[in-house]
Structures
1.
Amino acid sequence: MDDNQKMNKTEMLARANQAINEVAIEFTESLNERVRDLEKALHQNDLKKVVAIAYNLETEASTFGWPRVTRLSKWLRKIFSGDYDNKPKAEDVMKVLGALKLMASDPETPNDQRDEDLFRELYPMMSHVISDI
């Protein structure tokens, strides 16, 4: 590889990293609003929208390093698309939504210990309903 090719590769990687960082910031800034949209769709019983929002949150949270948000969103997506082992109780769904809201409440300063504790508390109930989360 000659010097021009090395420089082009370096520039292209820098631009790609910058684009990824910008999208990650956009995701973080919109996380709280998107969780509110999920809650609103749930209260309006718009299950197609709940599944679509949960899927988008699941995939984007996975991409940008939010593993517990990923798993909570996946659980909600599976519940509302009918893909579950045992039907969950409504109050369990609300607990998961509440945990998701809390995790997204201040995405600029995440509280990893609180979020991990919340997830550990919810996991037994979630895994009883869906084994693959």
2.
Amino acid sequence: MTKLFQLFFCLFLLAPTIVSAEIIDRVVAVVNEDLITLSELNNEGELHMEKIREQVPIEQRAEAMAQLRQQILTSMIDRLLIEQRAEKRGIQVSNEEAEMQYFQILEQNNVEEKDFVEKLRQAGLTPEMYKRNLKSQITRQRLLNREINSKIVISNTQIELYYLQEYGQESSEDGLHILQIGCLAGSGEDLNSKPDAQRRVKQLRGMVMAGENFQDIAKNYSELPSASDGGDIGVFKEKELSREMIEGIAGLHPGEISNIIETRSGYQFLKILSSKSGNTITQAPLELVRDDIIALLREKELKEKFDQWVIQLREHSYIKEQL
């Protein structure tokens, strides 16, 4: 029995009592054979809505709430389309698998669940929402591996062109092209205390040294502003760097990773992509960074193809929004 039929069946059974009762829920979207209700939408965005009530001036609150609900509904529709497609392809992820992934994340980050729950709360999430997102992410990844990722081929021409453009050959600036990953430290009993920040950054450096992509790790785990750019802070002359950074990269060649550097705000480690002085350019050898380049190009192409894939999925689905 589909969700849509179940709802109508329940309404039919309860019709005599509903006539005089206040309607407290309604359908806000029909997605093929499934429904999204207002209560589901409100539960999804409950903590974000609470922040709007607390922080947004009352005269702007209605507009901000409407924009938030639309964003949440769009996200829920896309997620439901992916889940429907995965089900048709026979891809299933159990709640137990998502639960196991949740506790693996706690273990990998060596963090107590109560501290993690508080971090989630600050980000506008509950553990249940986070686990639901984990389940959705696992489902999405398996579906993308089957429908998109397996079809992406990165050519040698693409790799060599990216290498020339991004590893200093075409740069006109003298200096060092640097990537960074770092963890911030707080004080006292704060989760981000200095020993904890040092432990976290050691773990991230270990992941990079084990062969994981530097810029992927930076984007997903670094706590510095450069994380959104994959840790890329650009080209710097040595005199423009802090004393700690100069000492940390002393003797490094392009492509190599520094030891952990203590800073006033926490800990970090660096990678030199290339160096240029006058007409002399030193680059990380292509073979040393080939896997990094492939991972970056694959991620870029996957995002582009995924966006197109979602558009096509929407075009071939029945979607009716009633927000």
3.
Amino acid sequence: MFVDHIQIHAKAGKGGRGAVSFRREKFVPRGGPDGGDGGRGGNVILRPDPNVDNLVEFHYQSNLKAKNGDNGGSKNCTGHGAQDMIYKVPVGTLIYRMPFTPEETGPAPRDTTSFLDLETLTDEEAAKLEHRHEPRKKKVDPDELELVADLDRPGVDFVLCKGGDGGKGNVHFKSSRNRVPRQFTDGVDGEEGVFYLELRKIADAGLVGYPNAGKSTLLSHISNAHPKIAPYPFTTLTPHIGVVDLANYRRVTVADIPGLIEGAHENVGLGHDFLRHIVRCKLLIFVLDMAGSEGREPLEDLQKLRKELDLYDPTLSERQWIVVANKMDLEGAKTKLKQFKTRYKKLEVFPVCAEQSEGLDKLKARLGELIPEEPPAPAEPEAAEEN
């Protein structure tokens, strides 16, 4: 199962209660107050991990909850703070905050249908009972939500919900007029909320094209990826990322985006589920069936694909892009390639036959030129040695 967007509920731990205690020892019969503070509640933390590739974990565990802090003790002992709950997410996860009221997570109403005489119910009451078990589903539009964080760097933890502080013990309320304080404060509730997680794959380049254009075959021959390949459309249903080895020990990542169809920007088919993964790509590679083996014309394919991307996100039309003319071994491909180059004279076109690995070396060399090399991360300053 591949999950790239999901709604979750998170609740941090509550702080422990402050203690009411007085010092009582053998030779100190009337000692002062010594009630300790409560411990801090646990945080709910999301950690971007490059070894995690989707959000399937939250499909089975959508309620993230941290433990409460321990109560304070006598002898000014502070309660133990609760352990933080850390959940791993893929690098490239966006976090949106959704409207939330505490009643949404309350227990479901008790089912009393078995105690009712269904024949005496009105049509309106029967309709309500008929849908009593249906979950509350909300159509989520990320553009209408508040963006909380963009987890695009591995290992940088994000505190989704902060745990509450512990309450104060009675030692804080002593004074010259209040020598036997019995006041204390309860722990603070931890933060709580409903969030929408959306995964956008991070890759240097993205393969864009119609179903069965040969994107998966191309990726499997230029990288170490092994996507499913079959001679029918929509073989690829989830994005795949392959690492392409270049000269001088360089590496770039290429994402195989599932095939687009006309109307994808309006979420026709699984349009938005596919298009979201090319937003972060620096280079767009349009893979065209230059032979027209599926009954389409490569010129029309390119125009429609560019239109779909522009309607989904206008900034995508400003990205650098090239064209890979695939299936050049089939009849009619060379003639259509000549027509294609006549129409797009200044466009970079790379004729290849991905299945036979023809023309791929030139394509890989050009990828190394088009995709800039990432500068090395600055070294952390070493701590000064103590004399």
